[in-house]
Amino acid sequence: MSNEAGDPELAERLREAQQSLVARLGGEDWRAHPRVATWLQAFASLGIAVGSRPPSLAALVKRTMKGSALPFINRLVALMNITSLENLVPCGGDDLDAVGAEIVLRPATGTETYRPLGRPEMTEHPDPGEIVYVDTQSSVVLCRTWCWRNSDITKLTELTTAVALNLDLMAPAVPFEEGAAITERLAADMRRHCGGRVQWHMLSLEHPGAEVEI
């Protein structure tokens, strides 16, 4: 796929998604919305301090509700933010050319390495037991604390040509069928705005993994 240059249509859709969310949730506590509250409760049940490590969805909604306009960084980042705002689901992405053959969501051992987004000179190690998205070949963490903060190593740039986008769909707030429809729409948006080949899979306890060819 191609992530080069801008996209006026996506830039406008991003602006509209922000305005629509403010109109939908304005005047009420956005934290109480079922799709946000589900993630806050899930983090709290794992002992995660959501004040310092909020789920990405909560951070994005908070920023939007405060009136902070999201910048158009590139097509892929715009698609992730649009999908999150329109459907109130976490959406992340990683450049597949920066990882090995297998990436897994699992508890950390504490020996993995992580370079924060925007601070590639820093090296951190996740807490033992922390849920991380990790490259099993290099032990490089792609995202810390489930869906809190992405890595600078796999950030999406205009040079990205192979990408994994992840939607975290928490039931019952997002029923399985609706989650599949959201995923299919994102795949269609990818084809339309970025071209290339697109595959999508729904993972679950019964089907916890998938193989893709790049």
Question: What does this protein look like?
Answer:
The chain has 2 domains: 1-94 and 162-214, no CATH class; 100-153, no CATH class. The protein is 34% helix and 13% strand. It is built from 5 helices and 6 strands. A 4-stranded antiparallel sheet has the order 2-3-4-5, with no helix packed on it. The chain has a two-stranded antiparallel ribbon with strand order 1-6. Helix 4 runs antiparallel to helix 5. 36% of the residues are buried.
List the helices and strands and how they pair.
Elements: H1 8-25, H2 34-45, H3 56-65, H4 75-87, E1 91-95, E2 103-107, E3 131-135, E4 140-144, E5 149-150, E6 163-167, H5 176-194
Antiparallel strand pairs: 1-6, 2-3, 3-4, 4-5
Number of domains: 2
Largest sheet: 4 strands, antiparallel
Strand residues, percent: 5-15%
User: Segments where pLDDT lies below 50 for 5+ residues?
Assistant: none
**If you average the pLDDT, what whole number results?**
96
Structural class determined from secondary elements: alpha+beta
H/I helix tally = 5
> Which strand order do you get reading across the main beta sheet?
2-3-4-5
Give helix % range: 25-40%
Give the CA-CA distance, first to last residue. 11 Å
Task: List SSEs in N-to-C order.
Answer: HHHHEEEEEEH
Radius of gyration: 17 Å
What is the molecular shape? Answer: globular
| Strand segment count | 6
